[in-house]
Amino acid sequence: MSPAADTVVGLLVLIGAGFVLVGSWGLVRLPSVMERLHAPTKATTLGVGALLLASMIDGRTRYGNWTAHELLVTLFLFVTAPVAANMIAKVHLHRTRTVAGGEADGIAGPPPRPDDEGDWATFAEPRRNCPGTPPDP
Length: 137
Fold this sequence. Notes:
Radius of gyration: 22 Å
Keywords: Membrane, Transmembrane, Transmembrane helix
Number of helices: 3
Organism: Sphingomonas abaci
Distance between the termini: 73 Å
Transmembrane segments: 7-28, 71-89
InterPro entries: PhaG_MnhG_YufB (IPR005133)
Region (Disordered): 100-137
């Protein structure tokens, strides 16, 4: 392997390991679910992406051919992480609003409370005779 490729792979591994470390630390140390949600979906995703990119470059320089495995894993990770984070956030918001007591306030302050009109982020029962709801049978 060339020294330039070694340097690039080493830097990508260090950057990826740093992001994974920060994401893992945030997942353990942040107090509430909504705050902990950002650590694995942002930092850890970037860290794993950097590690997979380092693996692709290393495989190309050592063996002389490109592999699509790392690219497919990265693509799958970047597509599924935001969707999973969105679903976790929606479930958490719905659960916080429907369960008595909810969750303790985190460093970002108390969780938002819905007003009398409801909130689009929860699966609240639609009001009767609203535009877009089917008529009563």
